[in-house]
Prior knowledge:
The chain is globular. By secondary structure, it is mainly α. It is built from four helices and no strands. The mean pLDDT is 87. The longest helix is centred in the N-terminal third of the chain and has 24 residues, at 3-26.
Amino acid sequence: MTEFKIMAKQITQIVDDYNLNRFKSHVLKDSDADEKFALKVEYALSLLKKEEKRIFENDFLDNQQQKYWWRNYYSKSTYYRLKYQAMKTFLHCFKS
């Protein structure tokens, strides 16, 4: 498996955990939900540049987005370069 796919898989797991955490805290009123984890995710998202955030939100946070949504914005190489940088920035917050 390539580094890119490994990173994408790690982010997918973090986002799934984040969504479950949000569900537990808002819908179930679970006061034991891990607020630190949610804050870490939100902090990591705040570190992304505008274009990186657009890619991250469309590829990882918005499940309704079309597969090739990015074609209206970027060339293929620019899209993957920005996506890779966004994933590196985001994951950096979880490695320390």
